[in-house]
Design goal:
Blueprint: E1 4-10, H1 20-33, E2 36-44, H2 50-57, E3 62-65, E4 69-70, H3 79-92, H4 96-99, H5 104-116, E5 121-125, H6 133-139, E6 146-150, H7 155-165, H8 169-192, E7 195-198, H9 201-210, E8 217-219, E9 240-244, H10 250-270, E10 276-279, E11 291-293, H11 301-305, E12 307-312, H12 322-328, E13 334-336, E14 353-354, H13 358-370, H14 372-389, H15 392-403
Parallel strand pairs: 1-2, 1-5, 2-3, 2-4, 5-6, 6-7, 7-8, 9-10, 9-12, 10-11, 12-13, 13-14
Helix pairs in contact: 1-15, 7-8, 10-13
Length: 404
Amino acid sequence: MCAKKILHLAIEYPYPADAGHKIRIYENIAALAELGEVWSVSFTSRPVSSQDVRELEALPGSVRVVPPVSHHIQITRKPFDLLSAISRGIIHRIPYVVVKFASSAMKRVLAGLLAEQKFDVIIFDQLRTTGYFDLIRELSISHRPKYILETHNVEADLWQQYYEQASSPIKRFYAGYQKSITGKWEMEMIARMDITSTISDLDREHLIRMGADSRKLITLPVSVGPRLKLKSTYNLQSKNLLFIGGLAWEPNLVGLKWFVDKVYPLVRRELPEIPLVIAGSGPFQHFPEPINNLGYVEDINPLYLQAAIFIVPILRGSGVRLKIFDAMKRGIPVVSTSIGASGINLQHGKHIYLADTEEEFARGIVALIRDENRRRQLSQESFRFVSENHTREASRKVYNTIIE
């Protein structure tokens, strides 16, 4: 296969890869870079340093970084921007997750780039970037690139969950409206793309039930990095419970509060001194000791080295929790709800401990802390699962099929 010239459009610059969606973007670019020349175009909500650019361009293969476009990504913290996006979306019947990334600056960047370069493949990372599809297609009319949509979840399904759990009639109405127009947009965009990759077989099946053409859907496995660089660092003497996740994402915040309010007290009845360490960006939450909320942490590796168990108390959401892979590739045992581990072919008791009630969740943590052999086995099996099924090599193999 001849090397392809690939335009990769993402909602956020992926380095540092310190959040689930950024890890996914970074690893996908890394897999693509060994198959062709990747041009990274993205938004950013923070300054991107020259070192950040060098890190992405230093990936094996070929990566060129177009200066990221500054854009407020977490607009829920900016009432004016939020209301503007909501109103524009309603007027033009464009999903909120798409219209919030509308940017004249990005349009100028894409117009300038496509006037100078011709791409064989154009990748839209997440539905949120598809507001630029018509512009890109118009600017690429002299040749016919392959259009690929890479999904991280089923966006309409997220709105369905918000609808079911809405706390007021107004929120319920808005969530229902968004579910409707987002689902229609998803189906339309999948139909217009040459191929759409899903993060799991579960999401692929969901999109087929919604009406997507199965022939246009392929599962692209989560990558945790090159297989040869994977190494378990689990320390059986570690004692901390560890939660990592951005608290600006509501499912993370709701799940963490459930754990702190309902599960953690049950754990402490049996293990009074066991600490809980929390790390992640977003609005800072204050918790009583022995809970240690660190907020955003630039280097999370020391936290993993001190973790006895990684917890994933997610009660709703779509897609795949990449944090599970991040823990497993280090050999850390994971206790999760079934929803938290959905979309991953993990066996309860072998690769992961699954629990859906506060009592079961607490019981699993206590049992694992008290049984070193069970923790060792879970550590070894989860690490083996990830290293055999979720490497950069596995992703590159799928990309070979997608972009040919």
